[in-house]
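Known limitations

Structure tokens in this collection are predictions and should be treated as such. Users comparing against experimental data should check residue numbering before alignment. To illustrate the layout, the record for FHA domain-containing protein is reproduced below. The input appears on top and the generated tokens appear beneath it.
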Amino acid sequence: MDEKSTEQTDPGPYEPTTTHAAWGAGSPRLRITSETERFVHDLTVDATRLGSAAGNEVVLDGADPLHATIEHDERDEFVLTLHGEGELSANPRAAATHEGDRSATLRTGARFTAGPWTIVYMRDEFADHGRPYGGRQGGEGEHQRPQPERPDYVADGDRRSSPGATG
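Generated tokens:
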């Protein structure tokens, strides 16, 4: 038997990498609760409407007819726009958010309200573009090395062909 075939090499400690996963990966979803109900809504289309109107993807009794929209954009981000009154845990003036006081790029744990409902955005960590290299170490103010440029999902043809792709 060849001596090299029985040798095992130590790969060293695990080193987290970027959060540039395949298009739509990470099971993006909303955890939705009220005082009496709770459910999970998987984000499986590029535009999700939330509110009390019957034609919305997520119907929420007690909310405005069109209370909020969530767009899955070309950068593989999910962008919330609040149309009705409600709280928003994300800071819409922070980096990586979209224009407007009532719009924000969602990150895991982002919370917003619509009438009596509390909605929390979740996406598996490996695909949540906001936390490269395993998250921030040393707190939010700590400097982190930049990750490589995000893939061009549209030009690379990954946008609709990957597992978990939406729309």
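For this record: Confidence is low (pLDDT under 50) at residues 161-167. The domain at 29-127 is CATH 2.60.200.20 (Tumour Suppressor Smad4). Please report discrepancies through the issue tracker.
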